[in-house]
Amino acid sequence: MHILEVRDITKHFSGIKAVEDVSFRVKEGAVASIIGPNGAGKTTLFNCLTGLTKPTKGSIFLSGNNISGLAPHRIVGFGIARTFQNIRLFREMTVLENVLVSQHLRIRSGMVGAVIRGREFIREEREIRDRAFEYLELVGLEDAADLPSLNLPYGDQRRLEIARALATEPKILLLDEPTAGMNPQETLGIMEIIKRLQGLGKTVIFIEHDMRVVMGISEAIIVLDHGVKIAEGSPDSIKNDPLVIEAYIGRNIFA
Amino acid sequence: MFFQQFINGLTVGSVYALIALGYTMVYGILELINFAHGEIYMLGAYLGIIFFGFFTLTGLTSYSLSLSLALTIILSTAFCSAYGMTVERIAYRPLRNAPRLSPLISAIGMSIFLQNYVMLTQGATDKVFPHIFSTGGFTLFGATATHLQTVIILFSLVLMVSLHLFIRRTRMGKAMRATAQDRIMASLVGINVDTVIIVTFVIGSGLAAVAGIMVAMYYGLVNYSIGYMAGIKAFTAAVLGGIGSIPGAMFGGILLGLVESLGAGYISTEYKDAYAFMVLIVILLIRPSGIFKKSAEEKV
Questions:
Q1: Which one of A212, B48, B258, B267 has the fewest beta carbons within 10 angstroms of its own beta carbon?
Q2: Contact, B81 vs B206, CB < 8 A?
Q3: What are phi and psi of A83, to 5 degrees?
Q4: Residue range A1-26: average pLDDT?
Q5: CA of A222 vs chain B CAs: smallest distance (Å)
Q6: CB contact (8 A) between residue B178 and residue A90
Q7: In terms of CA atoms, which chain B residue is nearest residue A99?
Q8: Distance from B197 to chain A by nearest Cα, in Å?
Q9: What is this structure's pTM?
């Protein structure tokens, strides 16, 4: 069963072809990665998937619903969440608040409830808090809940981004270079978190340059170069694909 | 004299603070200086006169003064919120992703349009808001706070506390804070940014409407150009407190009112408008990002 189907997604920026006719499918519960040299169109593809940019053409199906061109908050509602390559936390909020704000969408009681603070509201408020702590535990930040997010060390900020994305209750998580700038120890931690996400039944798609991570945990790999998909397959088949080696010419990335 | 000027300053300052909140909230979320905001305040004053006049004609005022006053405030606030929403919809939303100068110019255009719209439909002469509060009041340290002044100060205080609780305690408030910090990220955690922006304009315009009615009652006279000076003063108040900061706008407004009033009392009334800007210059020299902002933090 494919949860995500991307058909002929194309994105042109005033003549520059950032992404050109890219199609692929991802199985539900899979861990897939998108690799490619700098400027290959990986982040643009993520932006199309999350509604930050409207694709020039093509369609994106999430569990059968065409979501291409929808507003970002609607796509979140359908079940796609993401993190950024350069961390984008709500800097003036605490760690816990960053996670709480993401549950906005899944909340029932509205304004009236917040003012009256009835039993139903308080019960829901507690549920939300408990769930937020579950997400924080999953990334190992439960003890940091009340710290300002700004004060977290770099690696923890990345973990918090994942917890926050998870709080929107997505079916698919898109992680843009989740291990960028991390030391080997922290990188292992992120790999562990991705495994846990998969254990929860989430589909994870991530952009990554670190080939140990890519080869270590992805079941499927999509390779982009100059906006075009040049290869797709299992880690083993990608490793030996002449086109991929060509794209990374001069660099033995699989060492 | 000090206490008398203090009470007068507090009254005017509360009004500045209410208007300043609209500037600071819109700036916080859109990084746009809504130059049409002073005009919304002016519309509030006019709408107050219109609705109150209507209730007087229909006899409601002589039946119950407080009911007609309450209805006047509610209806004017609702109308001003609708004006604010419309301004956002037609003048700012189409330019959301345009270079920053474009919505600024559009805001100035809106301001000119609204002023002329009121001048053409209501005339260029002053309109009068009837005196409905008795002249008496409380005497404190030899100074008198009239009933109207007391109402203005207390009502503004209630509104400011409510706004603070709304921002801190409700989910919409949390969504507003998230949107102010990072609009794109807010949309990616499922917040409908358009709704947040509309709510911001509705609240800001509503507060300006209340300010307009209170000023109409306080000075008794209203004309189509009052939005200009009040807008600039309130904007100054917002910058003084640190634009984008809600407590800053409240504090800045009250400080400005006090400075003006005490300056007028102790130095000279002639330069009343100049004191406000002198304070602004001094604060900007010492703390360029305003009193309540930590530092000139780059907005991401």
A1: B267
A2: yes
A3: -120, 170
A4: 91
A5: 24
A6: yes
A7: B189
A8: 14
A9: 0.88
